[in-house]
Amino acid sequence: MKKFFQQYYNNLFLSDRLFAALGLCIVLFLLKFFFAWLGDIPEIATGAVFVLFFIDIFILYRNTQGIDAKRITSKRLSNGDENPIQIEIKNRYGFGVNARVIDEVPFQFQLRDKDFKLHLKSAEVKSIHYNLRPTKRGEYDFGFIRAYISSPLGLINRRYNFDGARILPVFPSFINLGQYELMAASRYLTEFGIKKIRKVGQSSEFDQIKNYVGGDDIRTINWKATARKGGLMVNTYTDEKSQNIYCVIDKSRVMRMPFEGLSLLDYAINATVALSKVAMLKEDKAGLITISENIGAVVPADRKASQLGSIMNVLYKEKTRYLESNLEALYSAVRSVVKQRGLLVFFTNFESLSALQRQLPYLKRIAKYHLLVVVFFENTELKELSTAPAKDVEGIYHKTIAEKFIYEKKLMVKELNKHGILAILTPPQKLTVNVINQYLALKAQQRI
């Protein structure tokens, strides 16, 4: 008996229909005091409700496992992307049932609306689809799948608890990597905002002779082949390969700023994964360095098959710190780790010109030995504030200050360029595309 109560009674819930029926019975008993002709009708109605109540219990509980449900997900979730989640539910009863399915999603999402209602015919299988968008890396703990089942009588609900408990890691964004892999060598890159740049130089590795087309460098004309063919022919050369491409990620407090749910650090991490993928597709070597008050993780550049997985496993655990970055330590690490000249893409953020000037001596020293690209972020809220019309004196003041900060960001770009350092000033949502554009442009110009 105790087992029955633990297994069945704890999962039995009375429905609104039952309370409505009992309320009607109570009304009939009250009316009987005024209308004697009702006779035994209240007692008969009450008895019928209880009979139907026990019949409902019997038909729902006679089948030990009347419902099956399971959650179908990938082995890991992609940070900042819409991840598909599927719940498959099957009716094993010999009659149709109404189901209310609640999925206990991880607390990080703060969602209470993953509540689905559906009708299942006998032996019918249905799927529930929805998406989750995580905004932080780490472990996400899914709970139970709870299904509340009612028969056609609808007087009670039987709850089924399916152990869907599962811990899924949230990795840096990887869902769109396939698009970059497919499009990196394609002329359709512009559909994703990625431009393909015509080469203006040449490498020393000969590829083939082809017909001249407008825009080809006339210095590459092959006069002997032209004489034989009777039309202009040019030599083409292959890209330089196996170059060192290092992404350097600043983990200091300047990267804590949020934008659309993700921190600037998360945007930098997602861009690093995408750039590393494209670089290895171009047969370059991808590496990683993280920096805060001390040197963090270092992944030496390589283009082996497991390199991207190694980079993602390191970035999965990275968090922002509260101190300022030590670029002197970064310079020492770059000199000791990166033995050959390569491309260093430094993801950071400068909110003032004075902050840049404090770090500029170290950036100039790094740029002596490597091609350095400094990536920092536009403050999109300030940009919106500067374009909005001012309604009063206070609004004019705020707009003026916003325009001052925006202008100072542009001065930072010029200051870096003046010292031979490339700079990318970008909104967070366009970071990945802009960084890949810059890499492809540098490859096309034979600068790496």
From TrEMBL:
Keyword Cell cycle: yes
Keyword Transmembrane helix appears in the UniProt entry: yes
Keywords from the UniProt entry: Cell cycle, Cell division, Membrane, Transmembrane, Transmembrane helix
Record-annotated membrane-spanning stretches: 18-38, 44-61
Residue ranges occupied by any DUF58 domain in the UniProt entry: 209-373
Any Pfam family: DUF58
InterPro entries on file: DUF58
Protein name per the record: Cell division protein FtsB
Biological process terms in GO annotation: cell division
Superkingdom in the source lineage: Bacteria
